[in-house]
Write a structure and sequence with these properties.
Order of helices and strands: HEEHHEHEEHEH
Low-confidence stretches: none
Largest sheet: 4 strands, antiparallel
Strand order of the largest sheet: 4-5-3-6
Structural class: alpha+beta
Number of helices: 6
Number of strands: 6
Helix content: 40-55%
Radius of gyration: 16 Å
Number of domains: 2
Length: about 160
């Protein structure tokens, strides 16, 4: 993560911060989301030699994700409550397939480009998680647990 921070700072981005070792970055940029994501993907590929999908949200968009929190009444363990951030709105048929794979205790709510998933028994054996993490959504996505989502919002609010 220090190398990723340095790469982005050297590329001219400001207020670059990272959180845990899974590619979470908060930064300031005058670029729009699409251009910012594409530039970061290119920089990462050139420097580290691998392709990675970069999904971008503004601080205000992230604040709305946290404010919406549609599963607040059931999700009592932030490590088992995840938000999948998609680069576009997933197809309704794809969401139906994911919901059909859910265990009776699991929940899934789709709001725009975000999918909120509650896995009370963890993701290890979750068929719903396997569908969420696969390519069946028809859009690029990355998931973060609720602790990470709220921490990233705190970091973005301090910048």
């Amino acid at each position: 993560m220090p190398e990723l921070r340095a790469l982005l700072a050297d590329a001219g981005f400001e207020d670059v911060q990272t959180y845990v070792a899974s590619g979470n970055v908060v930064l300031s940029s005058g670029l729009g989301a699409v251009k910012l994501g594409a530039k970061c993907e290119k920089l990462i590929a050139e420097r580290f030699g691998f392709d990675v999908d970069v999904i971008v949200r503004t601080r205000d968009e992230l604040a709305e994700v946290v404010r919406a929190n549609p599963l607040a009444d059931v999700a009592d363990n932030p490590k088992r409550y995840q938000v999948s951030f998609c680069d576009g709105e997933p197809d309704a048929a794809a969401i139906e397939k994911i919901v059909a794979a859910a265990a009776p205790t699991e929940k899934l709510v789709a709001i725009g480009r975000e999918l909120y998933a509650w896995h009370p028994d963890g993701v290890g054996r979750s068929k719903m998680w396997n569908k969420l993490a696969g390519s069946g959504l028809g859009v690029r996505a990355t998931a973060r647990n609720w602790t990470t989502v709220t921490t990233l919002l705190e970091m973005a609010s301090e910048s």
